[in-house]
Amino acid sequence: MKDINHVFDYQPFHYELSGLASDYVRLLKMALSLFEQNRASAVWRLLERAERCNPNVAIELVLLRAKALERCHYFSEAFDVVESAYQLHANRPEIQQYLLRLHAKLLPKHAEQAFTLARLTLHQKNDWQSIIIALQILKQLQLNPVGACHYDGTAITGWLLDSNILPALTVTLDDADFKLTPYLTTPFLHQQGFGSGRDGFSLTVSADCFKVIRIHLNGLDLVGSPLYLNTERLQNTSQTTAITPHVNTRVTASKSPVIDIIIPVYKGLKETKACFNALLSAKNIIAYRIIVIDDASPEPLLVDFLRELHAKNRIELIQLPVNIGFVGAVNQGLRASCHNDVILLNADTCVHGDWLDRLHAVAYRSERIGSVTPLSNNAELLSFPIPMQVAAMPEPAMLAKMDTILAQQHGINAIEIPSGVGFCWYIKRSCLNEVGLLDDVLIERGYGEDTDFCLRAAAKGWKNVCASNVFVAHAGNVSFGISKKHLVAKNLARIHERYPEHEAQYNDFLTTAPLTPIYNALQRAILPDYAAKATALVVLPAILPDAISHDIIRALDTRNRHSVYYLAIAQTTQANYRITLSSSNSNEPLSLTYTWPTDGSVLWHDLRAAGFKAIKIHALVGWPESILNGLCLLGIPYHIILHDYSAYCLQSTLLKAKAVCTISVVDDASCVACVSEQGCKNTAYSHPKALRDFSVQLFQKAETITVASADAAQRHRAYFPNSHFKIDRRAIKQAAALGIKQPTAVINTDIVRFAVFFAATAEQGFFNVLALARLLARQRSPIELIVLGTSWDDQALFATGKAWITGPVAKADVADLLRLYGCRLALHLAPWPEIDGLAWQMAQLAGLPLAAPELGIYKELLDENLGDIRLSLNKTLEEWLQIMLRPAQLSAVA
């Protein structure tokens, strides 16, 4: 197989797609040309890079990348690509069909997901290609019944595979049961190898006679069942119920209820118990009634719990004979509530205090407020502390504190939002009467019904608001489980199709972020409770060349069971900085932002209030001296972890024009000359003496000063003889214990590929990598360099024809990506005496031996017994290449 490098000029690959049609057409033509040459691996990496550099690349190119992976027999990777595309484009039938086909190949892997998608596909009665694949999946899973039904206004038609060997179907017309044996021919299904050939049925029915028809086999419904014969019920709240439920109405109240709390229940005994314990113990003045809809729960213990609550006169219970989904169940509850305001409450929520009184008060702040939603840890645009990110459900004590703090806030607490969120959703009766019930035709079973209702209400002049003085905890995903993502994707696509302006309104709310002041105040109030469990405040490096370095530095302090808090900084203007404080523990949802120096007093107040036990400072350069001094004056023991030489070198890396500074002390005049020639990385100091004087002051009061290499300790001792430097490589060595399996070469195995983890800057060895790539081209070497992430100059590397740059890569993706590329060796050519050995850590994670110069920590880490290659500083680049090309070495790493 020829290599892509010998076919294409690499100039086109140094781009960011502008969105112009010509860009996509050119890339598409190039990919299709490679496919015609039977070079799927080249297609994959061409489009993989395009997508990494341009996350909004056209979906057609994403699917073509998946096809290339499939051609290379990487079915699981292709599945991941297509599934991600389906989440964004669920309304595209070709994507759903492709995902079904991959599901069929991968069975029994992802069996539950495959079953869910296959069942959803059978609803699409006209897409027979997808239906055939769905049937293949269901037959492989050996699940019965496999069949579907639908109503066209005059007749119910459907089919049941292998009906000749199965019991007769049961047809439930409202409350009456009848038996039905399929008898019609099904030639198309039979030709495809499905069924007996006579698996169809047809029933002529009148919508005037029946409200709902259920078709099932031993209690298991066919796809499409139950069938609602009167779809006008959606807009008529006074109409009789479509399903005849078993209703228990033996509920007493001290006074007439003003609000009906409607709770659909399907699964989750533990969560439902917690919900009712909180709900029934909350103290509210306003009268209310609890209406619970048992949506044919498959959990007997859960059903018994609900019946027990009803027997104690705590709830009104409606039990449905068949599961009709969240939206249908809610509509049953809305019909049972004829006159009152309603609250739709998920059974996996927890409320606190006088939550109901506060929601009611917000609802009546204005006559035109139609719906009210509280804040939560899991509420999409109202999620705390970061909108659109799910946080862990707070423990009851923390929920009580958070809700109490919000209840005590002053000022406006009704903030207009583009749509409500249905986990805890107050709807005024006047709004409900005008807008109608939830739409269970547009919305399939659940997810999106709240958005659709709110947009219908807004079109009629109603306002949807957030009650910023109420916090309701929400677990999420309890009833829907694994089917959630399919429902979300499909229903969201339908919402955007019906309301094309909604996405812009939603994004505008997230951009303006009106909840930020409230969120910040709440976070500051609970910070001491969370931070009391933390071991340390970790001050992150201000300057990191790539995302992988950032991930590794963060990981150094999160290997124990205790959480830490990160303090990060980014310069926004010449004199201003943005500082963020966040937790490493996802169960502690905190993310505070400060502007320095404007918010300096607030920052120091928060850090003192947090009560951290220790501070770990991971970098000096990039942090203003005033902040570092302030941290040291907090009275908290602090530790310094050195990752470079910024304590005494204004370049931070000891690099001179053509060499590296010696271990012995360099005079100030030489340092000044170096800065004059090469510029200064640490611009906070104009002279090396000022920098070193500050470092001496900082080191004197530090509990410990840690470096990872003996070489770095020796170099620092020369400048700071009165300081003790501790050598600790435990954090680095832990990477070797992760047990990542050795990658295998699978793409273009006639080419030897070396992975280059870092080449984003000159300090990371870009110019050495470029020189090596040019040498490989001159020698027509079989070696190709795979550069992860981005480089100092992608275009120059591409022009050699001997290097490929992947585009941005996260640490978690490295091992899988190198496995796809088939890399045999990791290569690191940094020209300065590094302290951390990040390339060695990445090589360990990827299961690759490492070739690196014997400089800095690599003198101590490289192990030739494990296939590592030591590159002597006394040898030329050509000699290094010969060492790496030795047959013995290549066989050791192949």
Structure, explained:
The chain is an alpha/beta fold and 894 residues long. It contains 32 helices and 33 strands. It has a 9-stranded mixed beta sheet with strand order 9-12-11-10-13-17-15-18-16, sandwiched between helices. Strands 23-22-21-20-24-25-26-27 form an 8-stranded mixed beta sheet. Strand 10, helix 9 and strand 11 form a beta-alpha-beta unit. Helix 5 packs parallel to helix 7 and helix 6 runs antiparallel to helix 7. The longest helix is centred in the N-terminal third of the chain and has 16 residues. It is globular and about 100 Å long. The N terminus is likely disordered.
Name the descriptors.
alpha/beta; 894 residues; single chain; globular; 32 helices; nine-stranded mixed sheet
What is this structure's SSE topology?
Blueprint: H1 21-36, H2 40-53, H3 59-71, H4 75-88, H5 93-106, H6 111-122, H7 128-140, E1 147-151, E2 155-160, E3 169-173, E4 176-180, H8 187-191, E5 200-204, E6 212-217, E7 220-221, E8 227-228, E9 246-248, E10 259-265, H9 269-281, E11 288-294, H10 300-311, E12 316-319, H11 325-336, E13 341-345, E14 349-350, H12 355-363, E15 369-375, H13 396-407, E16 414-416, E17 424-427, H14 429-435, H15 449-459, E18 463-471, E19 473-474, H16 484-498, H17 502-512, H18 516-531, E20 536-539, H19 547-555, E21 564-571, E22 577-583, E23 591-596, H20 600-610, E24 615-617, H21 625-632, E25 638-641, H22 668-678, H23 688-700, E26 704-707, H24 710-719, E27 726-727, H25 730-733, E28 752-756, H26 766-779, E29 783-787, H27 794-799, E30 803-805, H28 814-821, E31 823-827, H29 838-846, E32 850-853, H30 858-861, E33 869-871, H31 877-885, H32 887-893
Parallel strand pairs: 10-11, 10-13, 11-12, 15-18, 20-21, 20-24, 24-25, 25-26, 26-27, 28-29, 28-31, 29-30, 31-32, 32-33
Antiparallel strand pairs: 1-2, 2-5, 3-4, 3-6, 6-7, 6-8, 9-12, 13-17, 14-19, 15-17, 16-18, 21-22, 22-23
